[in-house]
Design goal:
heterodimer; A: about 350 residues; mainly alpha; globular; B: alpha/beta; two-stranded parallel sheet; about 15% strand
């Protein structure tokens, strides 16, 4: 009932090719954006913005980047933490070394550097795939961790290997209050999500998916594997790099290589798998699951006034979180995004589902 | 999970997330956030610290609070991870926190950027960034009781004394086995400076976190045969290093740990094998007989309200937690002297209190810290307050003091702190605080 498509006829290719061809979807997204841009900044307390929503947005962007590589192009990567680090440290270097460098530009240039490194480490994907590629990208993780720990130049000769930024501003507007930071991240993530959605809908996205589904067949019908794989690596590392720069600049303010350790890579991969491989929406679901849920779980005993010790609460958090991951993967191996689309299907046919 | 139940669960979760943050702490109580790590790779060391910290707050409450103001507190588990630490900071900040103790170098670095905007002071008692001792630049940081540079300097002085003077260090070899993180790298600038001055050779041996893989490192130690090994480790890394030293046959008497590497969990597993191992004791060591410990046992543990096992009360890390809490409480007390006794202080007022700490021997004795630590007094320029360190040695069963008090060499430290702080200020485009700012 809610989602009935009856009467929504498309009379032009343009109308048929919209991102959201169904009116209810458009309405929903419009409402969601209005909520995110207008209502949330007005109502949400500082804690929710700073500790929950900003990390959620930034990691959604990273998951989106990784999803393009893993979900759309089928190239498994365990080096996304490293590409985040490249973005963060490159942006830091642009910011520190060039006087008067605009923040937005250094963030984007951080993404560009990450693209270069990503393509470099994506080269092996031309010869190897699957688990072998995962190991090759793991090498990227180790190498880049090592580089930022050892090569002093990257950290501007900081004695401890930790770098920090402050006094951020964009187009002359300060980026200090949680609302400003939140809106900045939201705008960037929104733009990139839109771009990504359009990319995967277009010719290049179809190439990626063809490579994912069967690379030999794709090559036979005239898709260049080299081009497809490397563009996927490039786009993916760009988004991941920008996310890394945001993580360092906007969320943490000061960071060390450990902020982008192998744990982060795994976390991102989990986000993509749990959220839904090959789904833009899924990246957001996955990030919410991995970022927000543990924080919630950690606080639940406190809300109900349960006299649990901190350690017990932390252990419980891990146990429940782990169980939920397993549970979700058993119930819906295609991730939360699939759950979402099933729900939409059901609403479309409601009250008479097949 | 069906869709309606999923939606319901999400709605409940969001609602309670909002509700929890909206509920602010009662205005009548001074709220102390407690950032701890009771889980994860560093838990064995994190737990006694957390217990000591909480026990002291309970003790203050049992004794009537700070001039009648009761303390409230809440723990938040960071797991030693910077992003979770930042989350904890935001969570507890919303509940009216007025002083934070990050308990991790990484979290300290991240919070250093946030504290000035939120106007909440940070106490990093014996850790954190060394240049933050300079109050002229780091208005909100308080590395009370000394920094890693103080620690490294004293260890060198001690070693030099053993050799018969700083001049005798020429040509000697000192290896620094360090945790490969900002924490482990903190002492490097000072040791390099000392190496340049006295002509000893500094060999740097990083160990990847958490530090269980050290075979290659100790192979290098075995090849180079350094005269001394400085161990800048934390958690499981320390006991591993001691076991490796035992396996390579490196004399434990020549090993000197940072004070984080000088507590019971670090050596207990190694037991006799660690006999003779030394570590810096940043003011205190283990004090099971101090007056304050007797008070804790009587007024907190005696009433069944103790945190953690009774046997750990008075151990090295427990004492550090206790001491850290005491410094925070004394900051509030000092602030009350100026802004009104019996009132709840704000972050800015507590900052003033911490900047004007004057814990003389009489006050320390009254608090029950006689013999545990030396007086501390801070100022606008000096946020460290004291730089006295002792060395203690593990005899196979417990830590015993094995040296007199040393003070870090101000002549050497001051210019280093100043230049590092200036560098930070230049990077951040900050101005040094004007003298008028010191009065506020």
């Amino acid at each position: 009932m809610l989602y009935r498509e009856n009467g929504q006829f498309k009379t032009s290719y343009r109308a048929d090719q919209q991102i959201f061809p169904i009116r209810q979807d458009r309405l929903f997204i419009g409402l969601l954006l209005a909520l995110a841009f207008v209502v949330v900044p007005g109502l949400a307390p500082e804690y929710l913005l700073r500790a929950v929503l900003i990390p959620f947005l930034i990691l959604s962007l990273a998951a989106l980047g990784l999803n393009i590589l893993v979900g759309y192009c089928g190239q498994i990567s365990l080096g996304s933490g490293a590409f985040m680090a490249v973005g963060a440290y490159a942006a830091y270097n642009f910011q520190v070394r060039i006087e008067g460098m605009p923040l937005l530009l250094s963030l984007l240039l951080g993404g560009v550097c990450s693209t270069v490194v990503g393509v470099l480490f994506g080269m092996p994907s031309l010869r190897i795939r699957g688990l072998y590629l995962a190991v090759a990208t793991l090498a990227a993780q180790f190498f880049i961790d090592w580089a930022f720990l050892r090569i002093k130049w990257f950290t501007n000769d900081s004695a401890s290997g930790s770098v920090s930024v402050s006094g951020l501003q964009v187009f002359g507007l300060p980026l200090e209050t949680p609302v400003q930071k939140y809106l900045f991240c939201l705008a960037l993530v929104g733009v990139f999500a839109l771009l990504a959605k359009n990319l995967v809908r277009g010719a290049i996205g179809r190439e990626w998916m063809a490579i994912r589904d069967m690379d030999v067949a794709a090559a036979v019908i005239g898709i260049r594997p080299v081009h497809a794989k490397l563009t996927a690596f490039a786009v993916s590392s760009f988004l991941v790099g920008v996310a890394g720069a945001l993580w360092g600049f906007v969320h943490l303010g000061a960071w060390e290589p450990a902020a982008f350790s192998i744990d982060r890579s795994f976390q991102l991969l989990f986000m993509v798998i749990i959220g839904g491989l090959g789904s833009i929406m899924g990246s957001f679901f996955g990030a919410a699951f991995i970022v927000v849920l543990p924080i919630l779980l950690n606080q639940v005993p406190g809300w109900f006034g349960l006299p649990l010790s901190t350690a017990t609460a932390a252990h419980l958090e891990y146990m429940i979180f782990g169980a939920l991951i397993v549970g979700f993967l058993i119930a819906e191996p295609h991730g939360l995004a699939r759950l979402w689309s099933t729900a939409k299907e059901k609403l479309r046919l409601w009250p008479f589902p097949h | 999970m069906t869709l309606p139940s999923l939606a319901l669960a999400a709605a409940v979760a969001c609602g309670s997330l909002l509700a929890s943050t909206a509920a602010l702490a009662q205005a009548k109580e001074q709220f102390f956030p407690v950032l701890v790590y009771r889980t994860g790779a560093y838990a064995p060391n994190g737990v006694p610290f957390a217990n000591g910290y909480v026990d002291y707050l309970k003790l203050v409450n049992a004794q009537g609070g700070i001039n009648g103001v009761k303390l409230s507190f809440e723990e938040c588990e960071t797991g030693y991870a910077t992003d979770r630490g930042v989350e904890c900071y935001e969570r507890l900040k919303g509940k009216g926190a007025t002083v934070f103790q990050p308990l991790s170098t990484g979290i300290t670095f991240a919070l250093t950027e946030k504290a000035p905007q939120d106007k909440i002071p940070l106490i990093t008692a014996g850790y954190g960034r060394s240049e933050s001792a300079d109050g002229g630049v780091f208005k909100w940081n308080f590395p009370l009781l000394g920094t890693y540079w103080v620690n490294a300097d004293v260890l060198l002085q001690h070693v030099a004394k053993k050799e018969g003077g700083l001049a005798k260090l020429r040509g000697k070899k000192i290896a620094l086995v360090y945790h490969d993180s900002p924490f482990g790298k903190e002492p490097i600038p000072l040791l390099q400076e000392r190496a340049r001055l006295h002509g000893f050779e500094l060999q740097m041996l990083p160990v990847t976190a958490p530090g269980v893989e050290q075979k290659a490192t100790w192979l290098q130690v075995r090849q180079a045969r350094p005269d001394y090994v400085f161990l800048w480790g934390w958690g499981v890394m320390n006991s591993t290093a001691l076991k490796e030293a035992q396996a390579t046959g490196y004399p434990r008497e020549k090993m000197y740990g940072v004070w984080w590497a000088g507590a019971e969990p670090d050596v207990k597993d190694v037991g006799e094998g660690a006999r003779g191992y030394n570590a810096a004791a940043m003011q205190h060591g283990a004090h099971t007989d101090a007056a304050v410990i007797r008070n804790v046992l009587a007024q907190v543990h005696g009433k069944g309200q103790g945190t953690g096992p009774k046997e750990e009360v008075g151990s090295v890390l427990y004492m550090r937690g206790l001491l850290s809490a005491m410094l925070g409480v004394e900051g509030v007390k000092r602030a009350q002297e100026r802004f009104g006794k019996g009132k709840v202080m704000t972050g800015e007022q507590v900052r003033w209190g911490l900047e004007n700490l004057a814990l003389d021997q009489k006050k320390l004795d009254a608090l029950g810290f006689a013999g545990v630590m030396r007086p501390v007094s801070t100022s606008c320029a000096d946020h460290m307050g004291s730089s006295w360190v002792r060395v203690h040695t593990w005899d196979g069963k417990k830590w015993n003091f094995s040296s007199d008090w040393y003070q870090a060499d101000e002549q050497l430290l001051k210019p280093m702190v100043k230049s590092a702080a200036d560098r930070y200020a230049a990077e951040k485009k900050l101005d040094r605080r004007a003298p008028a700012d010191c009065q506020s």
